[in-house]
Task: structure prediction
Amino acid sequence: MKLKRFLLRYYPPGIILEYEKAGELRTKSIDLLDLGPHSDVGALVEEIMLKEPLLTDKKADQLVGLVSKLKLKLSEERDKQFYLFKVLRAHILPLTNVAFNKSGSRLITGSYDRTCKVWDASTGEDLLTLEGHKNVVYAIAFNNPYGDKIATGSFDKTCKLWSSETGKCFHTFRGHLAEIVCLSFNPQSTQVATGSMDTTARLWDVLDGSEKCTLHGHSAEVICVAFNSTGEQLLTGSFDHTAIVWDSGTGRQLHKLVGHRGEVSNAVFNYQGSLIATASMDKTTRLWDALSGMPLAVLRSHEDEVLDLAFDSTGQRLVTASADGTAKLYSMATQPAASADASSLSSKDSFSFVADLRGHTGEISKVTFNPQGTLILTASADKSAKLWNAYTGQLLQTLEGHTDEIFSSAFNYEGDTIVTGCVVRCSSICVCVVSQGSCSHLYTFHKMYQSPVQGPVAKVKDLGLMLHFAPVGSKDNTCRLWR
Result:
């Protein structure tokens, strides 16, 4: 084996070793999840050198420089305020979803008008219109970190793969018998997973466009799909109250996570792939051992449906969002949590309750950490998004300006740009960006459109209705970027 080069990964912190073995180029990840502003770089490098055979003494100084650079990056102050940045005007019908590429330089929007648009996030220029679907374009994603491809899932039962540079359609994935409502690329960008109202998920080959396998196991709509960080496993969540872990190489069912008494609203892996968290309409969040499928804990702190949840980039903290208008912050602990919020089912690591994020006056439908893990962003039906300290739960800033419910929000990779969007009854989203203190512009994407579906949950059975999960579009006719 011969080491070719080092690659830095800021979030979560780590170093990628690119090496050659038997004439084939391969990569290996060295995770530095505990690296912080006060870490001893010299001692850490010594530990890495002892464990990693690819690293010789000649590489020690270079490794010290790389770890020091990572430490400096993690020490950067993140106390800037976010300001409204841009508004765009485009789709003639409501927006359904938005997504950033890794750098945050480009933004994509899906719409009821059957198209997906590609935008320059800094200028607001409409770069590409991806046309070809015959019904609502609902699920969209870049193949981050590469960003050279876009996948779109539609109510026309197909998924399309596009070039993000030229707009060329590489493949149309056909096989689902009902609307596609979620999709995800694996980390290697070799597979796309799609989830459908037909109760199945499917895996597709990015290179040749073929279907790898159909995943049968759910008895109701599949509403979320997520790969673990290695891409070896796929997680699906369903309205049948369960989540399933699959081998993404063979399509074999590994574990079925049974325990919720209501529809699963989201399901996610932590970065290490050792834990799974599921949110449900039964007002609970459940933690599972991803390797065995065994239940670990039940978090019962919410008084209404749990609509969303997220791990931070290191998998050391968890935040949940609910229709009760609150978010709850948990931290990894070495012993089971003793508070009334959690009923531990294991003597292994569990999550201890940290803070109750109160301030919204309406349900919270979306929650996420910034990539640095220092901020939590919540989007609410009270027409605002809020930023919170991810260690203490302190409210730091309220992003206001929408005139209707905010239903979706996201950070870009650097954490210096936020996009917020409103409910599907309307047709707008907003984008926010971090700046030194000047307010720039605002973008409006869509004209107002009234959807027949209202409320937090819509069990979609036909193309005229829209799921409540992760839609963006607004009665106030705006999509907002904050910087």
Remarks:
- DSSP finds two helices and 37 strands in the chain.
- The two ends are 44 Å apart (CA to CA).
- The longest helix spans residues 60-74.
- Residues 334-348, 434-477 have pLDDT under 50 and may be disordered.
